[in-house]
């Protein structure tokens, strides 16, 4: 027998249905939730065919459209396979397995994967307004497919014989946050005997996406120049360490506060900022938390590093806050904003959902069905 997926009229039709209990799997630094799903294996009776399931973590840095030109812009970071038919993989059943088995009915074949803790979290790079196809970035994909061998690079697997689902590996903020950072600078100017003192601080080192970030600013202007304005900006730095030393920074927030501090006077106040994706929808290359199809997402969470090789992390994301003072002289003489600047590190993450217990998350069922043509 042989497989002829292009002879639909004369084929025996088999069905593979991939049941997915959830799409997000949590990395809490010490371990990662187990991936467990169910394909329902239909009438694949030919000894020529076997059914395999694969979980892959990959970095995508180009369009799938370029594959037809012999160019592959995808690099596998980690990959694992199980054979489901003929059956040779029997995982220990969890409550999630039992729930899905009742839904799938007869013929359900359970499987599970353990995600290594040293793999990166899901991150996508925001496409430009005219970009099409899948976003570049790190993603995790579950694939069920019909083949002769589970990982033969010379065997051509038809898309009609494959069911795919993207999942996400996510991190939540730790339950304990650290003390807030503090920075200060004393800046002297030409033709002024005394300096300008600037101090900025935050209450904690980690904030949640969408949370207002209060920044305490203190200015002691002992110079003979005037502080005309305060500008606060937030920069996102993306470090793509997998295939090159590609590191770039993009602003995600810029806000000015009309503050005037005259010579010999002081200023002290707390100002608030909230960086968000809604203000940065058009910025190509901005790092976002991994998205599923067209679902909305947010700015990428800060990368929490482990003691692993940096190259395995794929994409590293970090943030910093800049507090700039515009200082004017006794006329048109203006000192650049960058001349009086302090920087504060910032961590942005999601809070751990309340009332959620690891491995006991509510089931939101996602189903992907393909019909596989098998010619006997």
Automatic annotation (TrEMBL):
- The signal peptide stretch is none
PROSITE patterns attached to this UniProt entry: ARRESTINS
**Is Disulfide bond one of the keywords?**
no
Q: Which part of the chain is the Arrestin C-terminal-like domain?
A: 192-353
Q: List the SMART domains hit by this protein, alphabetically.
A: Arrestin_C
**Does this entry carry the keyword NAD?**
no
Q: Which GO molecular function entries does the Swiss-Prot or TrEMBL record give?
A: G protein-coupled receptor binding
Q: Which keywords fit this entry according to its UniProt record?
A: Sensory transduction, Vision
Q: What SUPFAM superfamilies does its record include?
A: E set domains
Sorted alphabetically, the Gene Ontology BP terms of this entry are: G protein-coupled receptor internalization; nervous system development; signal transduction; visual perception
Give the record's family classification: Belongs to the arrestin family.
- What role does this protein play? May play a role in an as yet undefined retina-specific signal transduction. Could bind to photoactivated-phosphorylated red/green opsins.
PANTHER family per the UniProt record, alphabetical: ARRESTIN, ARRESTIN-C
- Supply the name of the protein: Arrestin-C
UniProt organism field? Cynoglossus semilaevis
